[in-house]
Write a structure and sequence with these properties.
The complex is a heterodimer of chains A (356) and B (219).
Chain A lengths: L5 H15 L4 H5 L5 H18 L5 H10 L6 H10 L2 H28 L6 H16 L5 H42 L4 H32 L7 H4 L9 H19 L1 H10 L5 H22 L5 H14 L9 H27 L1 H4 L1
Helix pairs in contact in A: 1-6, 1-9, 1-11, 3-9, 3-11, 4-7, 4-8, 6-7, 6-15, 7-15, 8-13, 8-14, 9-11, 9-13, 13-14
Chain B lengths: L5 H31 L6 H29 L6 H30 L6 H30 L1 H6 L2 H26 L4 H35 L2
Helix pairs in contact in B: 1-2, 1-3, 1-4, 2-3, 3-7, 4-6, 4-7, 6-7
The chains are: A mainly alpha (356), B mainly alpha (219).
């Protein structure tokens, strides 16, 4: 019964999958790769990414969640074991994770509804901090000094991630694109390059989503004290299974509900060339995987894609870039963690008699 | 670095075959027009030359269908297939136009006024030269795609030919409407002139389509 609480995270994963598949929209909208082929490749490699390197990204999110009283600390687990209240702690931990995912999910849905690009990563982080602002004593200098660097690291990725993706994309499009173009002999070879390029890009992009985003949708259900205590104080105890379940949820979203958003986004960014299109996806994937593994923080695919598209556009000069789009992205970047944080704060306020 | 597959090679060969058939139709049409513009040509001779044009057009049609069939084997990406079909069907329109003009001249026993024949033959000759450049451009598009991406000035050459035809057309139209003949006869002559110049326009449109193909594929 307690595992029903996983549904909120799985739903978050499902909607993340249906939304993040838009990254590959150009490949499908330009009919380089068939929709069915694309979603099968994406689903398989999202799951592979989640099961292999996905567990690496659970740690930092779990730390942030613990210091913001969303996940139980090691001390709380030990005292629950001593007091015989592990079952209650486990239920509350699962419930808190579900609340955070519902708050983040509603935020993502609302901002998406208003047609702004949104990052589920930011929404989850915002919801965790919102919960923490109610329960963690931020007036305590110790709590503040523990949390500020963690929050700072997450916020820094929101700026660094699109910036680095933009730089990587600018270099890839400006050098690799031109390099490949010079070596094209026939029209047939151009088509072969585009097809191969998109397949490679989809594989790398899907791996990056699996590695990164799987942690976003299930990390809060993970009991990272389990290896030390041997007692399950949250819903999931294996890091591989935690990330893997997240990956499967994302893959289901890709397989069942991604066509519409894929075609819409693919069509809208079709003003970049086919060659730029796959190099942008590769730039996004490289950035997300490298940043995720170096920092151990799950970073946003959406932000990296936006940065990479801008970087590709800049290779043709600043006039080719629609800077107006940056305004809506800026609004969403501020609004998404703020709204999710406020929602989580409100839920924390109304449920304090239960969790307090 | 990236080599050509058998499927794409087949499409390329069949497209070149179709271009050769269209060119042969243009050659027959040129002979037809020379005969039609020569005083005293027997109607039966014109009729037989028109049949040659028609036969060449039918052959070009068959080549087009073969080429389109070869695209069903998933050679090229869908967008490239669409572009190739678009170029090939526009080339087919050139042969159709030649056949149409030749048939109407025969049906109507039409005689081109002698004061216009030199200019009309000049248009046919320019159009033929323009088509030869188009053939070269299409071959380069398929075999030297990378070079064509860098330099497609050959497409400007095609447009230059069309400008020349435009100038002659303008001059002739002024002369036609200044003729002291019935309005219907003036309009009939102007219609032939328009149809003749449309061939050059079609070739220019193909060059434009090729330029769009290149721009959308440039990194």
């Amino acid at each position: 019964m307690i595992y029903l609480l996983l549904a909120a995270g799985l739903f978050m994963g499902w909607s993340l999958g249906s939304n993040d598949a838009c990254t590959f929209g150009t490949a499908v909208a330009t009919r380089v790769v068939r929709y069915r082929t694309a979603v099968i490749i994406i689903a398989v490699f999202v799951i592979v990414g989640a099961f292999t390197l996905g567990p690496n990204n659970i740690g930092k999110l779990a730390e942030l969640a613990t210091s913001n009283e969303v996940m139980a600390s090691s001390d709380s687990v030990h005292s629950a074991i001593e007091n015989g209240t592990v079952a209650e702690l486990r239920f509350k931990s699962g419930l808190k994770a579900a609340i955070i995912f519902i708050c983040a999910g509603l935020t993502v849905f609302g901002i998406n509804f208003l047609k702004f690009p949104v990052s589920s990563n930011q929404a989850i982080t915002g919801a965790i901090i919102g919960w923490g602002l109610f329960y963690a004593d931020y007036s305590n200098p110790d709590v503040l000094s523990t949390n500020l660097p963690k929050i700072g690291a997450f916020v820094a990725t929101w700026v660094l991630n699109p910036l680095i993706a933009g730089i990587v994309s600018f270099i890839l499009v400006g050098t690799v694109g031109k390099f490949l173009e010079k070596r094209l002999s026939t029209l047939g070879s151009y088509d072969m390059l585009i097809k191969t390029g998109y397949i490679i890009a989809i594989v790398l992009g899907s791996l990056s989503i699996g590695i990164n985003s799987s942690a976003n949708v299930t990390a809060l259900y993970f009991d990272y004290a389990y290896s030390e205590t041997g007692v399950a104080a949250n819903l999931l105890t294996s890091p591989v299974l935690t990330a893997g379940i997240g990956g499967i949820a994302i893959a289901l979203g890709v397989l069942t509900y991604s066509k519409k958003v894929m075609m819409t986004v693919g069509g809208n960014i079709a003003n970049i060339s086919q060659m730029d299109g796959f190099l942008v996806i590769i730039a996004m994937a490289l950035t997300v995987v490298i940043m995720g593994n170096v920092l151990g923080i799950p970073v946003s695919n959406t932000q990296a894609t936006v940065g990479a598209v801008l970087g590709a556009g800049l290779t043709r000069g600043a006039k080719q870039v629609n800077f107006g789009v940056l305004k809506s992205i800026g609004i969403a970047w501020v609004a998404s963690p703020t709204i999710a944080g406020l929602l989580a704060y409100a839920v924390a306020f109304f449920t304090q008699s239960f969790f307090g | 670095m990236f080599t050509k597959s058998t499927k794409t090679n087949t499409v390329h060969i069949l497209l070149l075959e179709q271009l050769r058939d269209v060119e042969s139709c243009l050659l027959y049409f040129e002979s037809f027009m020379r005969a039609a513009c020569t005083e005293g040509t027997v109607h039966e001779t014109l009729k037989s030359l028109a049949v040659n044009v028609g036969d060449a057009e039918a052959k070009a049609d068959i080549s087009l269908r073969k080429m389109i069939d070869s695209l069903q084997g998933h050679a090229y990406l869908p967008s490239t297939r669409e572009d190739i079909i678009s170029v090939a069907t526009r080339c087919d329109k050139i042969a159709n136009a030649c056949e149409g003009i030749a048939n109407h001249v025969v049906y109507q026993h039409f005689s081109f006024p002698t004061q216009f024949t030199d200019d009309l033959l000049e248009i046919v000759s320019i159009t033929h030269n323009q088509f030869e450049v188009l053939e070269k451009a299409i071959t380069r598009l398929f075999t030297n795609f990378g070079d064509m991406l860098k330099d497609h000035s050959i497409l400007d050459e095609i447009r230059d030919f069309e400008s020349k035809v435009d100038k002659i057309e303008h001059k002739l139209n002024e002369q036609i409407y200044a003729l002291d003949i019935e309005l219907a006869a003036r309009m009939q002559l102007a219609k032939y002139l328009e149809s003749l110049c449309d061939i050059s326009d079609t070739i220019e449109n193909i060059a434009d389509k090729m330029q769009i193909m290149l721009i959308t594929r440039k990194a």
